[in-house]
């Protein structure tokens, strides 16, 4: 997070801007970023491809 979100950024004007930047980073990191454990696909793509999750729903 430090390298991707905070690098080159000295400060935010408001705390809400900082919280929004962290939220955006966490959302991307946890949902859209490719994970090696999933075969270099994103968690969303993995869930869409998973037949186990489709039948459980």
Structure characterization notes:
- It is built from 4 helices and no strands.
- The termini are far apart.
- It has one domain.
- By secondary structure, the protein is mainly alpha-helical.
Question: Which short descriptors sum up this protein?
Answer:
4 helices, 57 residues, single chain, mainly alpha
Secondary structure elements and pairings:
Layout: H1 2-6, H2 15-32, H3 43-49, H4 51-56
Radius of gyration, in Å, reads: 16 Å
Terminal-residue CA separation: 33 Å
Low-confidence stretches: none
Strand content: under 5%
Average pLDDT, rounded to a whole number, is: 78
User: What's the assembly state of these chains?
Assistant: single chain
Please sum up the structure shown.
The chain is mostly helical and 57 residues long. The protein has helices spanning 2-6, 15-32, 43-49, 51-56. The protein has one domain.
